[in-house]
Amino acid sequence: MTTKLAASFVALAMLASVARAQPAVSLLIDNGYPSTGSLNIASVLSQVSTKKGQAFHFGSTYDTYDANQSWFTSVFTTFYRHVVSENGCKWDATEPSQGVSDLTECLACQKFATTNGATFRGHNTFWHSQTPTWLPGSFTAAQITGTIIPQHVQAEVQGMGTSVTSWDVVNEVVGDGVSNGMTPLQCVQNKGDWPTVTADGSGKPLIGDLSFIYAAFNTAFQYAGNSTRLAINEYNTGGQDAKTACIISLVQNIQQNTNVPANRLAVGFQSHLTASTGGFYTKSALATTFSTLAALGIESMITELDVSLNSNSQANLRYQAAIWGDYLDACLYASNCNEFINWDPRDDLSWRGASAAATLFDASGNPKLAAYEVAARLQNYAAGNAEPCATASGTGVCTITGTGGGTTSSSGTGSGSTTTVKSTTSSTATGGSTGCVSAEWGQCGGMGWTGCTACASGTTCKVSNAYYSQCLP
Ligand code: XIL
To answer: Are 276 and 12 in contact (CB under 8 A)?
Structure first.
């Protein structure tokens, strides 16, 4: 399988900002939920589905050529329960010669899912990247929309069968330089990739309308299962910004100009994030976008979440866990979000690079703090508890309370809520530097902590667990 650097990788830098110190964060795993030991969330995921009233699909990427196949079998039985082929369903893999469909790897990934009792989603039927060598070529606009796209989409969607939960029908069709008020066509033309322009690098216009997108959706709708969601999938989207506005107007435009009804459409938010201020959307920004789509009857999905770190410090791993927790809560507590994909199942396999430590499992395949926090959030939701506050905002804004295990409340809803911590333990804090003072609710110790260990007057540093001590009244 050839691997090409996706255009989106370069664009990640747009959402990422200069690395800054991460804030001290509050987590459910500080409050009684496990942060060590083996993780098996299969039954919790079933409980989440029951609570949601429909299947909640939580998973990751897989391909048969990956090393560590026995680890994959184990983790996809106990943790990730939904499978996306990382590369095996892309155009270069599935139509290597024009008109010759080859679903070998895509079907093998689906079989891996079925064998392990997991579900399967399709990624993707159209993308300007990872295309076969014969495409893009010197085809006319009429050939592309009339034959090439319908033929490819039909072969793939029909060939994979009706149980596919959702398909990324088009991937990354909106530009990075868009501005508010652009029409859907302007949003797509701003991308400047084939087939809106020719593939020869000259930038010469080719398809001057959205017909190639409509052709893909109409064909997918014709051959997909009758509950399969059909998505536009995009990076650097999720908040109240021009690119997200483009995505929302494009999906409505697709609904108006194709046979696909709203209740079969979805927006996939890739979510390749960076653990730094501005490197991710806040939970409330995501919630607002998800509810805008819910009002239109359109599904929201987190399709490719990873959170890169600039160092593997304990504080960064906690920040990563907080961001992951917020994205998961945004999806869990939304009425229209039922698929949540973690892109690459472990750090050493991540397309962001192993040193970015951007996934839920470390390079040895062991769960990281973010994996435990994910398990805790799922458990918290399944137990019917209130939505935790926005942990990635830091303890100045959000401090979770509760004794964990899914038995108690955690906090208020949305961002900005602060709640009282019920601390049950008190002992000497570890780590950190002296000569400075942490504010009330701030961190004052824990493994890897390099900040202040003294607490503001009227508060005492109490150990929550090995990783976290906090200044409490
Ligand atoms: C990435 C894969 O993870 C890599 O293995 C491959 O080399 C390039 O593509 N957006 C997408 C995914 O939609 O298909 C990309 O996956 C990551 C960015």
So the answer is: no
Task: Encode pLDDT of 145-201 as tens digits.
Answer: 999 999 999 999 999 999 999 999 999 999 999 999 999 999 999 999 999 999 999
How far are the Cα atoms of 2, 8, 11, 271 from residue 5, in angstroms, in the given order? 10, 8, 11, 17
Cβ 3 under 6 angstroms from ligand 1? yes
Nearest alpha carbon, ligand 1 atom 9: 6
Please provide residue 363's backbone torsions phi and psi, each rounded to the nearest 5 degrees.
-70, -10
**What's the first-to-final CA gap in the chain, in angstroms?**
58
* CA–CA dist 327, 318 (Å, integer): 14
Ligand 1 centroid–CA 380 distance in Å is 31
Bridge partners (DSSP) listed for residue 257: none
Q: Please state the pTM of the whole predicted model.
A: 0.84
Distance 191 CA to ligand 1 centre (A): 18
* Element of type H or E holding 460: strand 460-465
Question: How is the beta sheet containing 460-465 ordered, strand by strand?
Answer: 443-445, 468-472, 460-465
Closest ligand 1 atom to the C-alpha of 172?
13
For ligand 1, atom 10, the nearest C-alpha belongs to 8
